Predict the structure.
Amino acid sequence: MKINSATFIQSEDSYLKGPKDGKAEYAFIGRSNVGKSSLINMIASKKGLAKTSQTPGKTQTINHFLINEEWYLVDLPGYGFAKPGKDYREKWEVMIIDYLTKRENLFCIFVLIDSRHPLQDNDFEFMRFLAHSELPFAILFTKADKNSVTKTKQNVDEYIKLMLEYWEELPPCFLTSSVTREGKEEILNFIEDLNKKFKKK
Ligand code: GTP
Ligand code: MG
């Protein structure tokens, strides 16, 4: 799929305040700093569309980007970022969990995992929650450029092997890099196929 347009539409703090045109949405979630906003820019072919930062905790709201006037990429805040205070965590949890479980036109969730790191408890807990809630998701391994091709493959293979000790099958998995644009075509093809199946809510 070719990207003809990518436009920031709005930021909001509740799934109820999102766009009401019923178009398909694809949300990016994962630990803080994993590369969600960078990957959105890479897929949309537009630098600076979503705000990125070296400091974890950059994205704090739900952000809608309209692609090809037809579907949305949605950037979400990261988890695992120890911003002090119970109130912040609870507010975050309510906002994100409500969005993930109640937003009717959310068609697939992309869970981002740093390809350099072994399976982390909070990622696994989060994916278990998605599976238990029967929410469709795919895994995007990020920052593939940070290691050699061999090392990245070894890490991802080990990750998948460990997951398969717990689960009989895994969701679709993609290897990505916002720097080399690895994975772009595969993800856009995946979204294109899903768009064909999507019926406006
Ligand atoms: P929060 O909004 O804080 O949750 O972070 P995020 O997941 O949106 O991460 P973001 O895209 O802001 O990127 C975090 C840092 O990682 C930035 O310094 C990016 O430049 C860097 N980064 C992201 N993706 C890649 C990648 O594929 N390769 C490399 N080398 N660096 C990356
Ligand atoms: Mg971000």
In short: The chain has one domain: 6-200.
